[in-house]
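Hi there,

I know you've been waiting on this one. I reran it after we fixed the sequence typo, so this is the corrected version. Both the input and the resulting structure follow.
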Amino acid sequence: MYNYQPLIRTGLAPKDHLIKVSGEGELAIPPDYASVNMGVITDGKQLIAAQQQNSVEVTKVIEALTALGISKNNIQTFDYRIESVYDYDQGKQIFRGYKITHILQIKLEDLSIIGKIVDTAVQNGVNYVSNVQFTVKNKDAFYKQALVLAVNNATEKAKTIARTLNVALITTPHLIVEGSNNIQPVFNQPGAFVKGAASTQIEPGQIIVKAEVIAEFHFKLI
């Protein structure tokens, strides 16, 4: 968008004679870091017995993951819950037992083994997997690159408008306002998991880093 008002032929560029444009910059980069939540949900009528069973199964999962080379520093409890479970029969609440939920968050730098991690965990007792997330560790550096692209994009728009109006653009912006930054994953396929495959396949896709600016440029008559 632009604002244009006729100039008095003084050769000056009054500050209300402006071209105002938006600029966008975008980078598509491969992720270098991932996390996945997985855990064991155990049901039982006796609370202590259900807790003990859950603990044994979670310990087995952790041992299997560390055997794959995952550091214990990259395995942490994300959620732990004990819930009473009820059935309802003709409006009556009937106690059924307890549900123990222990969710681990696994952090990974080697994205090629995510599928293997999930398969190994499931083979060792995991019955809950969710929230597979991909990101980049050095977000600020990539955002700054996108910001440069956004400023250049705004400048090129202003130059195009100036040429169309046959006016001389002062290419140093009078004002630049940074918009909201946006970093989001874009996957190569709609779902992270490929069901029915011999082993779990998880596609990291790309991370889209966006930057936006609003810029104001003075101009004068040629």
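Quick highlight: Strands lie at 18-29, 33-44, 75-89, 92-108, 128-135, 167-169, 175-178, 182-186, 206-221.

Best,
R. S.
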